[in-house]
């Protein structure tokens, strides 16, 4: 009886323990993806702002955005839930992060390879895109403008179909240029990244 209990216990332990192989945690170009958020949720109730990530290569520069994606749920987003003229974490819970594997230029400002916070200040006519040196922040509680590396003004575009969940997208234009887009509700904004 004791032997059966030990066998069943071991089987349950091995069956429930996470299995990550070297090939799963690193892609063919050697990028470590073990710390990336998993947007798959196996619990019965979906979180209101699930963790998500998007990544792509712009030439040989690996660009990765990690964020929490709130849902619209019938609410007015910009000028309502997210106030105009206020610094926003561009997600929920923690500051959204953007990571570059190589140095880039954003709005003619050099940003060294590494991980940064991505904040925005939404407005009806213009948005401010902010790359901030302190990537590990809760909401905008710890935000300090003195740590901004980039402040870029962009114009929002009205979408023909509303987007239910906050969504980031990264597109490679060519080996040196990419575009990051942020869409939620009825609005999308974009900014360009250039490899150095």
Write a short abstract of this structure:
This protein has about 200 residues and is mostly beta strands.
Question: What are the key terms here?
Answer:
single chain; 196 residues; mainly beta; four-stranded antiparallel sheet
* Separate helix tally: 2
Helical percent range?
Answer: under 10%
Mean pLDDT: 83
- What portion of the residues fall into strands of 2 or more residues? 35-45%
Report on this model:
- The longest helix is centred in the first third of the chain and has 15 residues, at 2-16.
- This protein is mainly β.
- 10% of the residues lie in helices and 43% in strands.
- The protein is globular and about 40 Å long.
- 24% of the residues are buried.
- It has a six-stranded antiparallel beta sheet, with no helix packed on it. Strands 5-4-10-9 form a four-stranded antiparallel beta sheet, with no helix packed on it.
- It has one domain (52-195).
- The protein is built from two helices and ten strands, in the order H-H-E-E-E-E-E-E-E-E-E-E.
Topology of this structure?
Layout: H1 2-16, H2 22-25, E1 51-58, E2 61-68, E3 97-100, E4 104-106, E5 109-111, E6 114-121, E7 127-132, E8 148-154, E9 157-174, E10 177-195
Antiparallel strand pairs: 1-2, 2-3, 3-6, 4-5, 4-10, 6-7, 7-8, 9-10
